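Input set for joint prediction.
Command: fold jointly, output tokens.
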Amino acid sequence: MRKYENFSEWFDDVLFNAEILDYRYPVKGFAVYKSWGWRIVREIVKMLEERLEASGHDPMLFPVVIPEESFAKEGEHIKGFQMEVFWITHAGDRKLARRMLLRPTSETAMYPLFSYWIRSHADLPLRVFQSVSVYRYETKATRPLLRMREFLWNEAHTAHKDWEDAERQVREAVKIYNDVFRRLGLGFLILKRPDFDKFAGAVYSLAFDAWNPDGRVNQIGTVHNLGENFAKAFDITYEDIDGSHRYVFQTCYGFGVSRTLAAVISQHGDDHGLVLPPEIAPVQVVVIPIPYKGVEKEVEAYSREVYERIKDAGIRVQIDENEKMQPGEKFYHWEMFGVPVRVEVGPKDLKERQVTLSERVNLKRSRVGIEEMIPAIRSLFVRITEDLAERSLKTLEEMVINTQNLEDLKSVIEKRRIGRVNWCEGLECAERIREGSGGEIRGHRFDVEEQPDGPCIACGGEAKRVVYVARAY
Amino acid sequence: MRKYENFSEWFDDVLFNAEILDYRYPVKGFAVYKSWGWRIVREIVKMLEERLEASGHDPMLFPVVIPEESFAKEGEHIKGFQMEVFWITHAGDRKLARRMLLRPTSETAMYPLFSYWIRSHADLPLRVFQSVSVYRYETKATRPLLRMREFLWNEAHTAHKDWEDAERQVREAVKIYNDVFRRLGLGFLILKRPDFDKFAGAVYSLAFDAWNPDGRVNQIGTVHNLGENFAKAFDITYEDIDGSHRYVFQTCYGFGVSRTLAAVISQHGDDHGLVLPPEIAPVQVVVIPIPYKGVEKEVEAYSREVYERIKDAGIRVQIDENEKMQPGEKFYHWEMFGVPVRVEVGPKDLKERQVTLSERVNLKRSRVGIEEMIPAIRSLFVRITEDLAERSLKTLEEMVINTQNLEDLKSVIEKRRIGRVNWCEGLECAERIREGSGGEIRGHRFDVEEQPDGPCIACGGEAKRVVYVARAY
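tokens >
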């Protein structure tokens, strides 16, 4: 399995062999999250939800179906989504009086309720989220995790008294997502999308584009400032302190759980399989006894002691006592599943009351005394997370190539890289860039101010932005 | 709000005022779980999932859509469900080549995959579960939580090498559900459903019927032995040790999360609002400072200390420092939300380094020194859970009335009770019981052997079973 030689094949193999996803479900674009994949998903969601709740967001659950008349209320929104929604038209043997759609995103499910809930300035800000599946009838080729017709995400929706407070919330959302993605060791760019690529119904959109080994960026999160657009469509107003009635200002942001899982797998994984950040690994440590003739029982008992100590420390640990497999096969198995730390317990370890720690990320090994084992594992967890992040950022840096003409840009895209170019912000030039290079303008950096250092790559006129160009999922 | 005078109104009021559910969603039978309700749901699901995982079940997630041809494979199953499924027929502006349904339950979503996963006896038993929403187009009147068209549940599905192992799994499932329901303090009967009321496709069905203040029982869980029915329909076979190929034996069981929440609310709640078992309360303890002139700052600081101590003990605690509300209003507020323990901190408590503990279940108060506070709260939690269970079981016992003739049974049902009667197991008699009393035969007890002590209540012939008769949701 060669990740950089044939990413697509490598990715499918890892999903299958590490029991992340079974893609043989008999409906295109829908798949089964198997136990190992689902348990990673749960850890990612938990990490995100804790962060959202700590910053004042309330968890809720809204229905999966949206009536057509709610969906149709915001003009831009329906235009953007109508070609990709699934319609429910019948129940039992009856035709429904009003057809309904499966949520492709939940603005139009939530905002009718917001108009009940928000009465006065004291009800603001309102901040809610839900972790759910959403449904989009993708017409492009579907890909496991990266482009499915049912995918997992967390969506937050907020309402504010004015533009400034909504802007503050946008920055807060970016910070929350940034922190979570960093803790997962991911490398990504935070970009402000060009106007022609913003969310249907938004004033502007920010997005987190993670790198992928095949050069196609993977949008793992988005943050939108909706202004008053939806408030006007759904009549969401509040009574201000002075007694006047005003529309609320709204933001919404989506954290792509399926796509974040895809990014974790594709950025950190290697030719041995998954490499998981300790914080989201369903099993953080696996203990493997290495039996030796004459001391089998002693090694077994000592391995058990090691296991119990790790378990008592609150670490997610498993002991592999399968007698039908050799230690080498077990190493191979748990490497495929990406368990961050392997603890080997052999006759020498037994004799010296030590253990051998092996790190998944670099397959390095070290020995520690049993009394120092827990702190050693904990500091390994911290170091592994840092190593993953560092390695991923380095790859991203190497992937971004400055280019000054379309010819070079085309070659950059063909070499599975991300082009960094100057752009005049003209739509025609955007089109020429797309046609000339095969990549799309993904936007300019939101978190860092970047000044153009030359003319527009397409027309040669004055450039207004430094933008990133790539193919995308 | 009078729970026993007008249950329906009381229940709706509690759902609204305690922010469990907002039923104003513009599609009938679909509702929004608000934050307090959703957080209780999460705790219930967590409690159940931990128990399932500890006994060898793997968490997974299967798609929400099922293709029609999978749905149609098991004859009895499709007969039982076809009138109540939602159909997806279009996507965007296209008609789909094959229509799909929203899962009403997931046998037909899961079992095509089971036939890939199960190859040999070494793959058995297979035990998986998912916590999801399911969709049923109820034609009877919908009711919040109790009968919705979208409801939350956890469904487990297992496959075994023979009938005996499936039977063992049925008993295990009953034990798991029984333990979880007991920990929630619920009162219920475990009944084997009569044949005419079993799950579509099952050999037999067991069910947990919880009592409800209005006398209609609430089915909160079911356990089915599926025999080889689905294995034959989905061709799920394994190679046995002797090389022969056999069909697997299957079981499935569903834990009604929405309905369990309904049972917790309606069994434990009172005229002040919710009463939550400590284990699932989003906030287990609320600290309320009682300020007093001259020592406001001191009470505030002492309340903070109390709060920090409870928090450090790992208890879910909140401090209510809202300066716009009087302590009495706060008591009222948190009673509505069912927080199990209130800690009042007033000037006398401050002076004596004590706190006043108030229990939601019986509104009893007691004082303890701050050093004894944490153990006192923990033992309150245990006692409250026991009290709730005891109270609920007592109500159930009082609700069940032995009856010997249809006239009496009718009066029992009208008085919102559960009738206990002798039955000959004849279908005609079942029909006469239903018509004569307004209640339905829910089945005979699974966990306790009960012998008829008289003739069949309907025909006067020999009775074979003692069965329970009630109206049901």
